[in-house]
Amino acid sequence: MAAEVFGNVVERCRAEEEELLGRWKEIVAESLRGRMTGVELDKELRDLLDALLSALAAGGGTDPGAEAYGEVRALLGELSRNRAHQGFSPRETAVAVFALKRALRDRIGDEPGFTPLTDLIDELGLITFEVYTRAREEVISNQAEQLLELATPVVKLWHGVVALPLVGTLDSARAQVVMEKLLQTLVDTGSEHAIIDITGVPAVDTQVAQHLLKTVVAARLMGADCIISGIRPQIAQTIVALGIEFGDIATKSTLADALMLAISRSGVDFGAEMAKRGL
After folding, report:
1. What residues have CB less than 8 Å from 151, skipping those under 6 apart?
2. Domain count, the chain
3. Nearest to 156 by CA among 126, 130, 193, 123
4. Keywords on this record (predicted)?
5. Domain boundary among 148, 163, 196
6. Of the four listed, 167, 169, 188, 247, which is most buried by Cβ atoms within 10 Å?
7. Percent of the chain with pLDDT over 70
8. Are 222 and 187 spatial neighbours (Cβ–Cβ below 8 Å)?
9. Domain of 215?
10. Residues with Cβ < 8 Å from 261, sequence gap 6 or more?
């Protein structure tokens, strides 16, 4: 019985396919505000409608997980991922599927199979939203990683001296990125001195101190000497109050002082070097 009902629906849709597509595109285009070309939208919706009608004709029934709907699910997955990567909202993405119900109502709303078909479209819409959500989470995760990379620059200050200026909170995830970037830069540049500047770190607690110490130890294992700069009076008082020990790690109040120390440790006569450069 269901096959017969959907058979009538498929027949009507095929007979009025261009009109149905035109109405569907019109509804979807309103929500996209020109962010897709008419050609792109036409192909996307035409392929999806053709796959849906083929699945119905093949006896897919009302179960969107049926084998007959494999191509439909694949097309919906591609649509959702593309929308997520292009920055479309969940609503704009869902409209691409749910708008088909309005288009069908305008063309074949009098068919007995219209109601079960709209129920099926609701299920397909949920699949679209689930794929979109996963894809959007991946986009956000990738963007967060990129921001971590950009927020953790390692710069070369002098021959054999690199600096890692930290700004903002230093949590476990960022501390790992900091360590990896510093160690890789030490390898790439062959530097023997590293300055970790915490001027931009708002507060230093036990956790932050542990992250710094681990980074220094890792750098030392690479054969590099580390200096921590940016020790402000408030931070110094906090470190003392918490009983945090930096051991034999050199600390300086400013990046400039740390640079001078690193240069002197590298065996360069800083005064002579400045005189030679006319500074």
Report:
1. 167, 168, 174
2. 2
3. 193
4. Phosphoprotein
5. 148
6. 167
7. 92
8. yes
9. 155-276
10. 227, 250, 252
